[in-house]
Amino acid sequence: MPVDRKPTVFPTIPRGARRLRAALFAGTTQDADAENARLRHQLLQNERIWAGFRRLEVSLIGAHSLHDFVAALACDFPRIFSKVDCVTLACFDPEYEISRMLSAPLESETVPRRTVDVSDSLITLTQESLRRLFGGSHRPRLGLCTPEIQAQLFPAYPQPLGSIALAPLMLRGQLIGTLNQASLDPRHFAADTATDLLDHLAAVTSMCLDNAVSRERLRWYGLMDPLTGVANRRLFDHRLGDEIERWLRRGEPLTYMLVDIDHFKRVNDKYGHHVGDQVLRQVAELLGHDLRGADILARYGGEEFSLLLPNTTRAQAAAIAQRICDRVAAHSFQVTDDRQLSVSISIGVACLDKREQVADQTPSIWLFDQADKSLYAAKQAGRNRVVVATSD
């Protein structure tokens, strides 16, 4: 790299021997000593930058989740490089898959995630917006930060930013996003800065992002029912254990519902399993329509679903269950372009609200047994109804 370039963003180590030799022949010993001191300072600065870069690369590669990967960029980057005041990641995410993974983390992760809010660090852009940022060159963009760029890529940062370094993220020949750095100093990211390490960092970020999303998909699909898109029994049981522990500590009411689609076998026998699958998906959507963030809906197996509603009393649960039952009964299930059918459900409800009601039973087993008995009673009474277990 020519030494007259400003070494502000991951510069390459300058070839100083040639300059030093030229100074020895062209000038005085004092000139050579000054040049030598300057080059030593430059080498030390580059070594510090290299060391910081290696630490950041290790953080990105070692991230256990998508959340921790974004946290490494948003938090570790400014901590390692003091002149970098803000870092964001902008991605082409047309189905909002990455955004959903980041905003709705699964609670069954074996490794605790970093307790930082990274919701403002991921920006979603269209492919056209990404292309406009780089003008088709796919080369890093450095220079002054305009108000438009700050609003687009650093919307949560409260102060006017001075300069930016945008690195395009390429994966399999496609532009998938951009890694965005910003500094309050207008001179920090100068347009004539060498970008060798920035290019390398962008390549590492692209690969790590792809790996993080792939791991998140595996974790997500391992804990979600692939047909309906709701939680599977494994995730539900995990959450049930967590909520039982919370109930033991706080004593707040905990409601458990078991839902069964009435005469579902007739649907499969008459219309075929592809129609049955459509019914399952639509019922799951209706069941989850009004759920809160703390509630969980799962496909328990076959045509059965289970719901867990923390801090919900027996009376509240009865009203919610009846509303769900009525919604499904009133819904027209579109199974073909010209055919609709009606479906009903039965719901059994149980509520933990007093410690003494469980006696010597495991609370989770007690809840399931009570809900299961209530569901059986609802079916015996004619289906398309709600039965709530009594508090006795």
Descriptive account of the structure:
This protein is of the alpha+beta class. The chain folds into two domains: 65-222, Beta-Lactamase (2-Layer Sandwich); 233-388, 2-Layer Sandwich (Alpha-Beta Plaits), CATH 3.30.70.270. It is built from twelve helices and twelve strands. The strands form three sheets. The protein has a five-stranded mixed β-sheet with strand order 2-1-5-4-3. It has a five-stranded mixed β-sheet with strand order 7-8-6-11-12, sandwiched between helices. The longest helix is centred in the N-terminal third of the chain and has 33 residues, at 29-61. The termini are far apart. 31% of the residues are buried.
SSE diagram, text form:
Elements lengths: L15 H11 L2 H33 L4 H15 L5 E7 L4 H7 L18 E4 L1 H8 L6 E4 L2 H7 L9 E9 L2 E10 L12 H27 L10 H18 L3 E8 L2 H8 L1 H15 L8 E6 L2 E7 L3 H17 L2 E4 L2 E3 L3 E8 L10 H18 L5 E3 L4
Parallel strand pairs: 1-2, 11-12
Antiparallel strand pairs: 1-5, 3-4, 4-5, 6-8, 6-11, 7-8, 9-10
Helix pairs in contact: 1-2, 2-3, 2-7, 9-10
Shape field:
elongated
The CATH topology annotation of the largest domain reads as Beta-Lactamase
- Class inferred from helices and paired strands: alpha+beta
Secondary structure tally: strands: 12
The CATH architecture of the largest domain can be given as: 2-Layer Sandwich
Unreliable stretches: 1-17
The DSSP helix count reads 12
Report the order of strands and helices: HHHEHEHEHEEHHEHHEEHEEEHE
Text of the CATH class of the largest domain: Alpha Beta
- Estimate nothing, just give the exact number of structural domains: 2
Strand content: 15-25%
